[in-house]
């Protein structure tokens, strides 16, 4: 019988890609405990991802990338997170945003083409730094305190961004900034210079190896052509499914660890492993309910987004529901896995306590739970009688 994790592989091409990612995930799993304890950035993981060609997965084929679908992105990211959640979440922001730019075409074509060629040739990565201490999450609509002031031939940008995932490794990134003269915010593509400082503030409970430090910009000059219009088609934000895919991968790893423990652990008061106990079987059954429900929603949402190109904006409630269900169910799965394993699960020698901490970070990734509730309520109320 094939493994449950393989259930959503549809063809040989996907199976081949999964095999390569599994090799990376196994390697990353060995390094994960050290980076988690140190809170250090796994540069070697990203060197491996670059060498394997993983960073160009969502780059359009016309620029030398693989041009994979959202469904395939979810499939690969889930498997990568099975080995190391931090690395998967961090690289997911890069892969997801390339997919987003590919489908919305909101960047000028020449700038996007240059980025894509650099990803393929040099392993360049990208992320957008929008969060700030004062304005909170950009998904809440806060105005950035980072400012962009018009200068001869471009702009001068000053401010400080928080939650800047991948900051230790990026040589270019996007920042949102407020333009006082125009009373509006805009995005700018910034290259790292000596006026860009990574302030190592990332010392948190979970996802400790994502390198999500603060980034300070001190009067950084950006050319006029590097102001990004932000226009383009609305893709419904499907690329954000890389987030629940990551947390589903962590939950799958916790589930498999608990299953192996239940099959093999036999205390001396039993004549069979604890998997034979009705109470343990019930907990395993509860894990399966949470996992199978969440995965079916996740892959269904990704498949619909791929197929229903003209309907993508109206899929936002479904995409949000998938993220909400996966994240909350994944937390339940890891909790159940720890209950099955018992007190041993608290040991830092085992991965479960790291899974427990990492999976909770999903609650703070967009869209947040209350935003999903509001989207679903609005969709229901706006139905025509």
UniProtKB/TrEMBL annotation:
Its cofactor is FAD. Residues 245-361 form the Acyl-CoA dehydrogenase/oxidase C-terminal domain. It holds the Pfam family Acyl-CoA_dh_M. Residues 12-98 form the Acyl-CoA dehydrogenase/oxidase N-terminal domain. One of its GO terms (molecular function) is acyl-CoA dehydrogenase activity. InterPro entries: Acyl-CoA_Oxase/DH_mid-dom (IPR006091), Acyl-CoA_Oxase/DH_mid-dom_sf (IPR046373), AcylCo_DH-like_C (IPR036250), AcylCo_DH/oxidase_C (IPR009075), AcylCoA_DH/ox_N (IPR013786), AcylCoA_DH/ox_N_sf (IPR037069), AcylCoA_DH/oxidase_NM_dom_sf (IPR009100). It comes from the Bacteria. Keywords: FAD, Flavoprotein, Oxidoreductase. The keyword Flavoprotein applies. Residues 130-220 form the Acyl-CoA oxidase/dehydrogenase middle domain. Belongs to the acyl-CoA dehydrogenase family. This is Acyl-CoA/acyl-ACP dehydrogenase.
């Amino acid at each position: 019988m094939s493994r449950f994790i393989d259930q959503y592989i549809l063809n040989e091409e996907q199976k081949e890609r999964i095999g390569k990612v599994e090799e990376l995930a196994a390697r990353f799993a060995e390094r994960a405990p050290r980076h988690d304890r140190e809170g250090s950035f796994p540069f070697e993981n990203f060197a491996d991802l670059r060498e394997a060609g993983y960073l160009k997965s969502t780059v359009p084929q016309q620029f030398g990338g693989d041009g994979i679908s959202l469904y395939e992105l979810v499939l690969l990211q889930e498997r990568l997170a099975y080995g190391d959640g931090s690395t998967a979440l961090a690289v997911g922001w890069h892969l997801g945003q390339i997919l987003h730019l590919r489908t919305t075409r909101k960047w000028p074509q020449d700038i996007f083409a240059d980025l894509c060629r650099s990803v393929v040739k040099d392993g360049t990565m990208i992320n957008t730094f929008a969060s700030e201490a004062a304005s909170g999450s950009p998904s809440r609509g806060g105005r950035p305190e980072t400012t962009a002031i018009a200068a001869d031939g471009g702009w001068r940008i000053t401010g400080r961004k928080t939650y800047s995932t991948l900051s230790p490794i990026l040589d270019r990134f996007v920042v949102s900034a407020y333009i006082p003269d125009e009373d509006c915010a805009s995005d700018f593509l910034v290259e790292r210079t000596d006026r860009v400082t990574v302030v190592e503030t990332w010392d948190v409970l979970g996802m400790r190896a994502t390198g999500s430090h603060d980034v300070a910009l001190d009067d950084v000059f950006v050319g006029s052509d590097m102001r990004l219009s932000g226009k383009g088609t609305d893709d419904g934000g499907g690329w954000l499914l890389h987030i629940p895919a990551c947390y589903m991968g962590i939950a799958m790893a916790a589930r498999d660890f608990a299953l192996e423990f239940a099959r093999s652990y036999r205390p001396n008061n039993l004549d069979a492993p604890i998997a034979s106990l009705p109470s343990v079987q019930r907990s395993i059954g509860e894990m399966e309910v949470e996992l199978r429900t969440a995965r079916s929603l996740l892959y269904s949402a990704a498949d619909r987004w791929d197929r229903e190109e003209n309907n993508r904006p109206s899929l936002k409630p479904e995409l949000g529901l998938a993220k909400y269900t996966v994240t909350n169910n994944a937390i339940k799965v890891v909790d159940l896995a720890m209950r099955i394993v018992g007190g041993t699960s608290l040991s830092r020698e085992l991965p479960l306590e790291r899974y427990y901490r990492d999976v909770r970070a999903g609650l703070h990734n967009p869209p947040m739970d209350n935003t999903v509730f509001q989207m679903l309520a609005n969709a229901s109320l706006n139905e025509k009688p």
